[in-house]
């Protein structure tokens, strides 16, 4: 039975590590999205940092990306930036790739 117990622990450890990496990639992606949107809104460096943090926190409202998309659409529209949801979804894809690249190169 020890072999099966060891295998089970190994799978649990791998699952936990994969989930942690996915969380870190999403958090970094959201920070990058916040910085991208802050650039579109012409925010100062301090405002951009605060906004990026707000975007990361917005992701905790519900599962999935819809809460982040809603925040970005709302904030960009309020700042008179003309952008559609499809462009934001493309930015999410681009920033996910960049976040993964940054995370993998830092390890």
What does this 3D model show about the protein?
The chain is an all-alpha fold and 107 residues long. The chain has a single domain (2-106), classed as Domain of unknown function DUF1476 (Major Prion Protein), CATH 1.10.790. The chain contains four helices and no strands. It has helices at 2-40, 45-58, 66-78, 85-106. Helix 1 (2-40) crosses helix 2 (45-58) and helix 1 (2-40) crosses helix 4. The chain is elongated. The model has no long low-confidence stretch (mean pLDDT 92).
Ends distance: 35 Å
H-E order: HHHH
What CATH architecture do you see?
Orthogonal Bundle
Strand content: under 5%
Number of helices: 4
User: What Rg is obtained from the alpha carbons, in whole angstroms?
Assistant: 17 Å
CATH homology group = Domain of unknown function DUF1476
């Amino acid at each position: 039975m020890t072999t099966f117990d060891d295998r089970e622990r190994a799978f649990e450890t791998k699952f936990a590590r994969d989930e942690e990496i996915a969380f870190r990639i999403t958090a970094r992606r959201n920070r990058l999205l916040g910085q991208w949107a802050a650039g579109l809104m012409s925010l100062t460096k301090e405002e951009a940092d605060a906004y990026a943090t707000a975007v990361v926190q917005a992701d905790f409202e519900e599962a999935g990306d819809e809460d982040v998309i809603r925040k970005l659409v709302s904030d960009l529209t309020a700042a008179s930036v003309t952008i559609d949801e499809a462009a934001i979804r493309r930015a999410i894809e681009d920033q996910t790739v960049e976040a993964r690249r940054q995370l993998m190169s830092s390890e």
